[in-house]
Amino acid sequence: MSGAQGFNTKLAAALERLKQVLGDKVKGVTVDKKIIKVDVASEAIVEAAAVLKEMGFDHVKGVTGVDLIALKQSENAIELIYHAGAYLDDELAPYVVNLATKLPRDRPVSPSLVKIWPSAEYHERETYEMLGVVFEGHPKLKRLLLPEWWSDIPPLRKDYRPPGRE
Amino acid sequence: MQEEYQAGKEIYVYDTGEGLVFSYGPQHPGTGHFRLIVRVLGDTVLEAEPDPGFVHRGEEKMCESKTWITNIPHLERPAILDSAGMLYPYCLAVEKLMGVEPPPRAKYLRALMAELNRIGSHFYYFALYGVFLGLPTPFLWCFGDREFIVDLVQFIGGQRITHSYFVPGGVRNDVLARVPLKLVQHFRTWYSEATGKRPSESELSDDFRKYTLHVADFIDSRLDYYWDLMLDNSIFISRTRGVGRLTPDEVAALGAVGVTLRASGLRRDVRVDEPYDAYRDVKFEVPVLTEGDGYARAVVAFREMKESLKIIRQLVEGLPDGPFKLKQHPINIRVPAGEAFARAEAAHGEMAYYVRSDGSDKPYRVRILAPSFRNLIVIPYTGRGRRIADIPVIYWSNNFWPVEWDR
Asked: Domain range holding A67?
């Protein structure tokens, strides 16, 4: 944890608790002005979410998938990020914790967090159709925004080329 | 059981369960390019499932093939009635990545534009909420009164609706000191009619500050008429009270935003929780009600407009001098590699962006977390067990904008 100015003790406690429960399954914690991000191993995502929920992060603001294949230090992985926020806790309300994990690009399967955060339901569906991440245990994993006749690869993957753009 | 993603596998099939299934929308009969798949038994809604995507434009993919600056005009398109709110967090996120801060004047002008857009957007909210509940008068009034806000937005940003006024590092242009006289004369008549005051030539002149303060006064007086017409109207009250009710715990679990959140007793507003730009300097209240129903949401929106007017007055009076933008290349800015998350309070609720850069001239990934998308889950949750006639209330009370959630 570096360079955190005016850093909240309750947030520090939540991040500390994450490290305590998950041990070395926490791959990295970034806290700076740009982002508060916790990287965890893919098998620990449910546990990590449960800890965050218990510490007061009661909803997710969104679920993001990032295809890492075209980055400069490219990886054959899809990064899955849950943006968790707190509504009921006044002290935690100013912070958004980005809970991230990396999934293999060839078989991106992750357990659904809808049971922990019901607010993730539609966001997970969007990530499913846009990046092809399959959420196990999701109550209704089907398309949301893409048309029924869509028959190409998931469009937010980097190897999808939109017609007329390149 | 694991299911692999298979392209082209899915088609929408209506299962033949209990009751009657029908489509509510998408041909704009009161939803706006959006469909609800409703299952009813008699007049009772068993299930109301949203089916968005009719106006999906792939904004997030588009971001990856445009530069940091040329992304701005299309990023405000998800909700053109609130262009400022849509763009605000994008600029904040890019600034975080660049490690810069805009000059004070830009901060004030941005907040001013955001508040003007919020009022314009809330007028839209009342217009559509009213007209789909059988009150056509607010529809006409709202668009008439919104015109004065739009005129002011055009004067500041150069365009009526999609002004692309915000850029990372400031605003695109400074505000002129003098308002066109024709605009002032046109406004003067309506001002006198609404407020009953006859300001002298020196009180309401072509000076930008005086003109803006008078527009704020005008909207303030007009809002009192709206209270009598719509919010104090017994038909409106009887149709909205108790419909779509959510408790504080429920809104927190569903992650709802905007008026839905604040009508259910949670005092959450990004402008206060994590103040940005000029919101650190202004004083205002966050209106909160505890009923959590369709009526409370309208009242919260009404009070928010009053608070926005308070903010506008403070911003105009305290508008600092100086540059309006950082010195930088107009089209090609350098954004170091990294990732940032930023949020702002748009008119529909909390708007956030997750932006990732790989150091090149184009974003690597831009994730738009739109407020309407986050409220979408409220429809199936509150629609269950209601009457068919309650669907417009459930739908419109949450301040939705279909293009915004489709992106």
From this structure: 9-136
